[in-house]
Amino acid sequence: MRGRPYAVLGPLFGRRARRRWAHLILGGALMMPYWLVGGVLVSSATGGSRLLSGSLGPQLWAYAAGLPLAAVTGLFPPAGPLSAAASRALCSVPAESLAEGPARSWPGRLRVAVWFALHTGAGALVSGATLALPPFALGVAAAAFVPSTREWMGVSGAPGWQLGLLPLAGAAMLLALAGCAAAVGGALARLAPVLLGPTPADRLAVAERRAAELAERNRLARELHDSVGHALSAVTLQAGAARRVLETDPAFVLEALTAIEETTRRTVGELDSVLGLLREESPGTAAGPALDAVAGLISRSGVPVTLTADGELSAVPAPVSREAYRIVQEGLSNALRHAGASPVSLSIALRGGELEIVMENPLSGGAPVVRPGGGRGLRGVAERAALLGGESSAGPVGGVWRLRAGLPLGAPRGGDGR
Question: What are phi and psi of 63, to 5 degrees?
């Protein structure tokens, strides 16, 4: 359990205070080249004043001349991420309060420049004091016991009671140094979220990136649902039908097994493509099937389908064609789950700048073949249609179940649907 000494000395010498002190010393090290360049400028302007002559005046002028140079460095893009990383690691500043990546606007860059100037400027002063004050404080404390040190400091004739106070004076100097370092380090830690925090442009960029990531996850979820869900529905139906006629119709059983084999092989390929996107191995290569593959989808669907196509479907833009295929796939899966082997009527037509998909199958009062609790297919259809700026509807109409989707042929919202 931490006692009273830690409560007094912890804010000055604790782990957080030491890390912030190290952060200030890092700023002092960064200030060194600017101080040297400032010294050259001051020497040129004053006719040859020597920076290292020991005089405090030229050194302060060099310090004043170097600060604007340090601020200019803060305008460069890498300064923001580097400063934020140092603040997180050494100043105990929460990561969520700092901007991610370089500043995206000039106001943000100016804030980073102010921070860089403050960090290097304050760090130079604290670093200088850290180098100079401890030896001096130790000399003051030693003067009480070492005559030669008293002579060097010019206090050899001081009364004994004054010499007895010299160790306390040395300790007070060290405590004052630690207090200044802790105060300056704390001030920089409080300023870091203000100067290195995200600007409105940064927050908007982060929100857009997160929205894009969410949209991509939703798209991949729809791909997996439509591909794997349809395959499972078809395989379940074919396997159930084959089981019922296993002994009476071997030819049908062979046909069902062939359809199951083709369906699973195709689905494994689609699943591998989607998983490749999840691993970010080959983005852009897993576009997925389109309307030209609808005939093959129907032949393996396990349900009799009457297809009516109207218009030049090959001219449908690729993003619309891919989403249309998935909508047809989900419609067939829905028919399989709820109507079994009932015939399905499918119409795909181009009408006035819109691709219209209409699927109808008889209503069935029986239990669904697969997933009696329902699924997310119809919601996925609605999401796909909305992504392209279209609309969809599904429900009973005149004794049949009717699924309709209208997809505009113009540029979809979100580019290629990714």
Answer: -60, -45
